[in-house]
Design goal:
heterodimer; A: mainly alpha; ABC transporter involved in vitamin B12 uptake, BtuC; 13 helices; B: mainly alpha; globular
């Protein structure tokens, strides 16, 4: 390995750190609710929508970010509208996003043939280019991601209620459906942001893996939310450091590898349930579900 | 595509004769037919079991498999099978029990998918080959098919369909009502693992021809359309295969006359059919006032 220059003197690394930290924090927060609400597949769908949106913007000559945010937020709201109480059925999600992906292939062809470029635009949208962000792009990305995170924190309390017990939340006057839509719009924005960091195909890992680990390790909601956010940011830092230190390693792979390693480690420390049936279960959702089933009268 | 071709003349027989005078189109039609039958049948079970997310994950992990095999200099085919089957076994290792078993399964699926895709990107980056190859792996084409590929496809399709024919009735029982099926002595868990392995093998054999991102379209959309229209297993399976065949053949013909990739036409036709079925079903239900949800596994 060559002797590395002072990493904090490298502007591209500072831009990646600035944008990446904010993006990871937003993804960790949004992802926690995504996992809690069992909507990970929606995140998967949005990753393909982000690909199509970005390529559509490139092919038609608009700003990349416009296509990303427009497509992901619109698709998130559409998926919400197609399902009951803001949650779409997985077959509907699958059908919609495989068509959107077909559109993406169309735009990719349009772009590569009209601009006489090679397939690299598609590759960079699919797998991200966090080391290629300019100072302005990094600042914008950080601001948007911070806004997404703050908005999510602002609705966290009613959203948590609505996610864990929809029926009771509705009865207590919580606008469950509206919250579902607002949440999906935030997921869309986070997905669009994450596409710039780790690419359309890999953003699912940033949404799911830290949140999945946090769900296994923390048994109450707010510590879980904080842990998910902290894990995502920590994994991103570790990934950037790894990619900087090891020549030839793509940063998006390094970030995903760190996220997956932490998630796998969370499986290892899983408490044994059978020996203590009255102690909290492996995930918060299951704990609360069991408590609810014990307390609730039998549903018809 | 065929520059010298005079174009579609509305004389269907003459057109088909001309299309089939190209050996690559004949191979594409044969391969497309086998793919449509295989993906249709497995997709019907996948949609019935609400496992679209897993199906999608198994479909996309062929990409790192093929990229890794290219990096190591072994046959891409081996890569497809190793990765698809390994992913199927990892996902099958977590049992789906209870309402939140599904949530846990989906987090694991998402993490596996994102990590393996990141590995694919790493393999491509290490290979330093032409990045255009990524697009071929991801989006594939029906148009450069070798007889070797078709032979593998036919062998795998025959084996998978034979196993499915043997366990089909029990799998159907276990999918529709796992609790009752388990009570009647059906090995629900083992069937679930077996189904994922079959799905992995089928997606591996299919993605070597269609590319990893478009297998899923053939898995989910014809089956979703058929289950919107009929709840009966036999009729539904037959309808799925018919829709998959029609969509594939039509897409092949349209793509032959157009500069755009087949994936776009295939997904657009299939999605159009799905939308028509959904709209038609809604209209018919409104007119006849049959309560919704009577159909077995019908669109909810």
């Amino acid at each position: 390995m060559t002797v590395l220059a002072d990493p904090f003197a490298q502007p591209f690394l500072m831009h990646a750190l600035l944008a990446g930290s904010a993006i990871a924090a937003a993804c960790g927060l949004v992802g926690y609710f995504l996992v809690l609400r069992a909507q990970v597949f929606t995140g998967d769908a949005l990753s393909h929508v982000a690909f199509t949106g970005a390529l559509a913007a490139l092919a038609l000559g608009y700003d990349l970010r416009l296509g990303l945010f427009g497509a992901t937020i619109a698709a998130a709201l559409l998926l919400g509208a197609l399902g009951r109480s803001g949650r779409a059925d997985d077959v509907v999600i699958g059908s919609v996003f495989s068509w959107v992906l077909g559109l993406g292939v169309f735009f990719l062809t349009l772009y590569t043939t009209s601009r006489s470029t090679h397939g690299n635009a598609g590759v960079s949208v699919l797998f991200g280019s966090i080391f290629g962000l300019s100072a302005g792009q990094a600042r914008t990305a950080a601001l948007i991601a911070a806004a997404v995170g703050l908005l999510l924190l602002a609705i966290a309390r009613p959203l948590l209620f609505a996610s864990l017990d929809e029926a009771v939340a509705t009865a207590r006057g919580v606008p469950v459906r509206l919250l579902g839509f607002a949440f999906l719009a935030l997921v869309g924005a986070a997905a669009a942001e994450a596409t710039q960091a780790v690419g359309a195909l890999l953003l699912l890992g940033l949404l799911a893996a830290p949140a999945g680990a946090a769900q296994r390790l923390a048994h109450s909601p707010y510590p879980g939310l904080a842990l998910s956010c902290a894990l995502a940011v920590g994994e991103l830092w570790a990934g950037l450091a790894l990619a900087y230190a090891v020549p030839g390693m793509p940063p998006s792979f390094a970030i995903l590898a760190c996220a997956t390693a932490v998630y796998a480690a969370a499986f290892a420390v899983r408490p044994r349930r059978r020996r203590h049936p009255n102690r909290p279960g492996p995930t918060l959702a299951r704990t609360l579900e069991e408590r609810r089933v014990r307390q609730a009268p039998r549903a018809p | 595509m065929a520059a010298a071709d005079p174009g579609w003349s509305w004389n269907v027989f003459a057109d088909l004769e001309r299309i089939w005078s190209y050996p690559f189109m004949v191979a594409a039609f044969w391969a497309g037919t086998v793919v449509a039958v295989l993906a249709g049948v497995l997709g019907w079970f996948m949609v019935l079991r609400r496992q679209s997310f897993i199906g999608h994950t198994l479909a996309v992990v062929g990409f790192p498999g093929a990229a890794g095999a290219t990096l190591l200099g072994v046959s891409a085919l081996a890569g497809y099978f190793v990765f698809c089957l390994a992913a199927a076994l990892v996902v099958a290792a977590v049992p789906r029990e209870g309402r939140f078993g599904g949530a846990e399964e989906s987090v694991l699926t998402g993490a596996v998918q994102a990590f393996l895709l990141a590995c694919g990107y790493l393999f491509v980056a290490l290979y330093r080959g032409s990045l255009g190859g990524v697009n071929a792996l991801l989006f594939g084409s029906f148009l450069g098919i070798t007889t070797g590929q078709v032979a593998v496809l036919v062998t795998v399709a025959a084996a998978v369909l034979a196993v499915l024919a043997a366990v089909g009735r029990r799998l159907l029982y276990a999918s529709v009502d796992p609790a009752v099926a388990a009570g009647r002595g059906v090995p629900v868990r083992r069937l679930s693992v077996l189904f994922l392995v079959l799905l992995g093998a089928a997606t591996a054999a299919t993605s070597q021809i269609t590319g990893t991102l478009l297998v899923f379209a053939l898995l989910v959309m014809p089956a979703a359309t058929a289950q919107t229209l009929t709840g009966r297993p036999g009729r539904g399976l037959a309808l799925t295969v018919v829709i998959a065949l029609l969509v594939t053949w039509a897409a092949l013909i349209v793509a032959f006359y157009s500069p755009y990739p087949i994936g776009f036409f295939l997904t657009t036709l299939a999605f159009g059919g799905y939308l028509l079925a959904r709209v038609g079903r809604t209209v018919v239900l409104r007119l006849t006032r049959v309560p919704a949800g009577q159909a077995l596994g019908g669109a909810r």
